[in-house]
User: Fold this.
Amino acid sequence: MSFNTFGRVLRFSTWGESHGPAIGAMVDGCPPGLPLSEADIQPFLDKRKPGTSKFTTQRREADAVRILSGVFEAPDGIRRTTGTPISLLIENTDQRSKDYGDVAKAYRPGHADYSYDAKYGFRDYRGGGRSSARETASRVAAGAVARLVIPDVDIFAYVSEIGGDAIDYARFDAGEIDNNPFFCPDPEAAKRWEKLVDDARLDGSSLGAVVECVASGVPAGWGAPLYAKLDGELAAAMMSINAVKGVEIGDGFAAARLRGEQNADPMRPGEDGNPLFLANHAGGIAGGISTGQPIKIRIAFKPTSSILIPVETVTRQGEASEIVTKGRHDPCVGIRGVPVVEAMMALVLADQKLLHRAQCGGEG
Assistant:
């Protein structure tokens, strides 16, 4: 596989398969001197790990991270980054490969089974191998390191829609996001989603979801014109996540339905000498460069392709068949996509900070 690395200055590479002995990430380009221990990473992995409720896969993984390199005890007695590659290891402990016997014989429609086979001539059918969402645990671990590079940036994500049922923004309460299994800021929507997701799970089916992410505290000036646009980097990062099929920055597609004066983000003089924006239709990015406003992004997750309802397919020999995907799967993969989206936002912004510092100097 030719590409397993993302980023320019702060780079991370992930490795491992869903049913292999372990997965992990290698983070390179991290500045030296940042305090880093497993305790800085584990809370984010705990947020993503499976088996936390009946609304996620029942695969049981501790997702305990180990730092194998890149840190050393500094003179102050604190383990700090050394500026060398940071190697992160997460063991797989609850694989059940026998569930995937039928998948070895026929392709799961909507999954990467056929496309991987067409490209490489064979595939790891155990849970999807490299195409499994299990890989995202490595991203979350790397994202926790990236957050240390941008301590002044606050990043939070939440689910705004499941199966076409959206939250009411009039009831938006950020304090509710961690109070329910859906990372939902609308407590009434969270109650509705319990039945919605459970019904799909009991039917052997799945639902799609929309995740929104906001990053505040990003200064004006990060990003670059044309081929290294901040919104382009974010779009690429989010589209690289398993099951993501769409990304919107700011108003996104809704902007196409507005007039110019409606879509503009008017400015007035601010007390600190910087412009005071009266709207944020652009999602905090203009011309590929951050404006200092909150960066807002929406990500669409498709329904999980591994379902218990029979679907028409073909075997590896090209014969007509049907397939039912046994095993333990998320009835709505977008739910656990929330910490993954946060991680990719952190990784992009940390990289952009270091790129900005390299070209323009200062702390950025």
In short: The mean pLDDT is 92.
